[in-house]
Specification:
The chain is mainly β. Helices cover about 10% and strands about 35% of the residues. It is built from three helices and 15 strands. The strands form three sheets. Strands 2, 3, 4, 5, 6, 7 and 8 form a seven-stranded mixed sheet that branches. Strands 9, 10, 11, 12, 13 and 14 form a six-stranded mixed sheet that branches. A hairpin with a 6-residue loop joins strand 2 and strand 3. The N terminus is likely disordered.
C-alpha cells in the first residue's frame, strides 16, 4: 500500500484586523512638589511634556473638558508649566480615563493667549459642565529651548489627534504648508513622522481652517519614503506664492489594514 499526501479542498481563513497604533502608550507621569504652586500638571503622558491636563482649583485636582479646547488654550498651559510652546492639543480622553470621583473643573475654556495661567481664561465652572471624562483635554508641549527638539511637525484644528492642518516648526516659529502639489505621498510622510501607520486622506484648500503666520513650505514633492516632511524637495523655507486659503492638511490612519491568510489543509492518506 502506498502513502501519498492529499490536499483537501478545505481552506482555513484567518483574518488579522487592524489595530490601534500605539504611538503614545499611556504611562504614569511622576508628580512633583511644585504642582500645586503651578496650578496645572500633565498626567499619563509618555514624557513630561505631554499628557492629560489637570488643574488645581478650590483645593482639589480635576480635569478640563475638551469643549472649545484649541491651540491657544494649550499654549497657555505649556507656558504655565515653563515650556516654550504647544505642539498640539488632544481631545476625547486621549491620555486615558480617570475615576469618576475626579471632578471636571473647567469646561468651554476660551483663552486669548495672553494669560499666564489657564485658570485666568474664560471658562464654565464645575457645576455647569456637561462633560464626561471621555472628553478630557490634553496637550503636547514643546520642550524648553535648551532641550533637543524632535517634533517639528504638528496637526492643528482637527477634531481628533490624527487629523488637522499641517504645521512645521522652523526658525523658532510654527507655520503652514501650501497645498500646491500636495497629495497622498506628502501626507504619508507627515503621518509617518507623527507616528501613525498610514494616511487616509490629504486635504487642500484649508480644509481645517486657515492658519496664521509664515507659510514655510510650498510645492513639496516627496517620494513617499522620507522620514520627515523636511526631507522632501521644496523651493526653500518661506518661498511661496500662496495664501492661507491654500493651507494643506492630512487625516492619518490609526490602524493597519486587515488582511487574510489562506491555509490549504493537507493530510497524509494511505491508498
Amino acid at each position: 500500500m502506498a502513502s501519498s499526501e492529499l490536499c483537501l479542498f478545505v481552506v482555513a481563513v484567518f483574518t488579522f484586523s487592524g489595530f490601534v497604533y500605539p504611538s503614545e502608550p499611556p504611562i504614569a507621569s511622576v508628580a512633583n512638589g511644585t504642582d500645586e504652586k503651578l496650578g496645572v500638571r500633565l498626567r499619563d503622558g509618555t514624557t513630561p511634556e505631554n499628557g492629560r491636563v489637570e488643574v488645581f482649583k478650590h483645593g482639589v485636582w480635576g480635569t478640563v473638558c475638551d469643549d472649545r479646547w484649541d491651540m491657544v488654550d494649550g499654549a497657555v498651559v505649556c507656558r504655565q508649566l515653563g515650556y516654550s510652546a504647544a505642539i498640539r492639543v488632544v481631545k476625547n480622553g486621549h491620555y486615558g480615563s480617570v475615576s469618576n470621583d475626579v471632578p471636571i473643573l473647567m469646561d468651554d475654556v476660551t483663552c486669548t493667549g495672553s494669560e499666564s495661567r489657564i485658570q485666568e481664561c474664560t471658562h464654565t465652572n464645575q457645576k455647569k459642565t456637561n462633560c464626561g471624562h471621555n472628553e478630557d483635554a490634553g496637550v503636547v508641549c514643546l520642550p524648553s529651548t535648551n532641550t533637543t527638539v524632535n517634533e517639528t511637525v504638528r496637526l492643528v484644528e482637527g477634531d481628533t489627534d490624527n487629523a488637522g492642518r499641517v504645521e512645521v516648526f522652523y526658525a523658532g516659529e510654527w507655520g503652514t504648508i501650501c497645498d500646491d502639489n500636495w497629495d497622498k505621498k506628502e501626507a504619508t510622510v507627515v503621518c509617518r513622522q507623527l507616528g501613525f501607520p498610514g494616511v487616509i486622506l490629504s486635504t487642500t484648500a484649508s480644509a481645517f481652517g486657515p492658519g496664521r503666520g509664515t507659510i514655510w513650505m510650498d510645492n513639496v514633492a516627496c517620494t513617499g519614503i522620507e522620514t520627515r516632511i523636511e526631507d522632501c524637495q521644496f523651493p526653500g523655507w518661506g518661498m511661496n506664492n500662496c495664501g492661507h486659503s491654500e493651507d494643506a492638511g492630512v487625516i492619518c490612519s490609526k490602524t493597519l489594514p486587515s488582511y487574510h491568510r489562506f491555509v490549504v489543509v493537507c493530510m497524509l492518506v494511505t491508498v
